[in-house]
Specification:
The structure holds 2 protein chains of 2 kinds.
Chain A: H1 9-35, E1 39-44, E2 49-52, H2 54-60, H3 64-67, H4 80-94, E3 104-109, E4 115-127, E5 130-139, H5 141-178, H6 182-205, E6 211-212, H7 213-224, E7 230-233, E8 238-239, H8 241-260, E9 270-279, E10 285-294, H9 307-320, E11 323-327, E12 334-340, H10 341-344, H11 349-354
Parallel strand pairs in A: 7-9
Antiparallel strand pairs in A: 1-2, 1-5, 3-4, 4-5, 6-8, 9-10, 10-12, 11-12
Helix pairs in contact in A: 5-6, 6-7, 6-8, 7-8, 8-9
Chain B: E1 2-4, H1 8-20, E2 26-29, H2 32-41, E3 46-50, H3 60-69, E4 72-77, E5 93-95, H4 100-112
Parallel strand pairs in B: 1-2, 1-3, 3-4, 4-5
Classes of the chains: A alpha+beta, B alpha/beta.
Chain lengths: ~350, ~110
Amino acid sequence: MGGTPKPTREARSSRERQAGKSAAGDARYRAIVDTAVDAIVVIDERGRIEAFNPAAERLFGYTAVEMIGHNVNMLMPEPYHAEHDGYLARYRDTGERRIIGIGREVNGLRADGSTFPLELSIAEWRDRDKRFFTGVMRDITERRRAEELQRLLVNELNHRVKNTLATVQSVAGQTLRNAADLGDARESLTTRLLALSRGHDILTRESWDGAELADIVAAVVASHGEVERFSIEGPPVRLAPKAALALSMALHELMTNAAKYGALSNADGHVRLVWKRVATADAQERLNMTWEEINGPVVSRPTRQGFGTRLITGGLARELGGNVRLDYPPGGVVCEIDAELARTGQSNRFIRGAA
Amino acid sequence: MLVVEDELFVAMLVEDLLSDLGCEVVGPAASASEAVRLAERESFDLALLDVNLGDGETSFRTAEILRERGVAFAFVTGYGDQGVRPDLRDAPIVSKPIDPRQLARVIDRIGNG
């Protein structure tokens, strides 16, 4: 057998089938690039754009026709715009990789002049003796926003933890200063921390956006366990987080005092807890709330100011922007709270703003 | 001493610690506007300012007024100095929870500065 065999019909048709397959393969690859969610831009080794897929058109606001043949640095804000040709030249000369094959977060420049953060990965490939780079890009504005929000929340959490520790320091310090003995101190401190925790529970249920007065009252009464000894009545009133916490603690102190010395310390006593909204002359609304102990033992004004009295007449009044009167008529303790409703109604703008 | 602190229990704590140190308290102011009002009108020789006053408010305006009046002040914060506006970071910081010894040192420092 000698000579070169002529291509047979079968061989010819096989080559044609190969070419046909290759064309079909190109079409499939084009479809993949054209339908990709990520922006894909191909440049030559001098930075001239060779391909610009539809996702890139959407991302940057240029059409492929506008971009092909232009320097890719058009898509970069300064200083990258000016430096990019230098990066490419250095890579051609030294092979030093800053981004190729690695990927990083950079800024993009849209047709309308706005900039945005994007995640860029670059692959290098060759076609015969020419070198190309494929950049795949994704807008990470949303991710950046989420990261920023997370950073804010972690900071805020840290701030709140420190404040809460300072609050515990305050409650513990005052309890110890006023306690009759260590057993009394342990008992008071424990119930106060539990009361503080219940107040936080109510606020957490509503994402620290405030709380309903009735919910605060119900939680404090439920913690005492004898619901039938209370008559409770009042309209819906929204309290800001800090006012809610202060009121919750003040009610806890009234409750503890009543259980030790007042209307909840004997068999027949009960507590009337009522509140109403009162319109004032200047079109403002005020909250009037009364805690009244009935049928309890005879009470008298305590000889020294403890934590509860200080919290109720000082701190609570300040927090509510109003007046709080605490009286000890022989019939039982009466506490009257008069507060600005505007003040009690402020919501927690920080968390809202951040979310 | 002017005290600015929006957290009720922390304000009580600061009052107690200052009274242990023999200081008389002006305030405590619980909001930025109340703090500014006291800073402009009341008389006191030192001030202790909580940085973050809730609802995004701070005590920085109060600090500016005090600086103009020549009244020394320190910040109280759970954020560290990152929470303080850069031009006010030369003021000492008392961190929360409050170490009474640190509070005493800071008051001594600003009182004699």
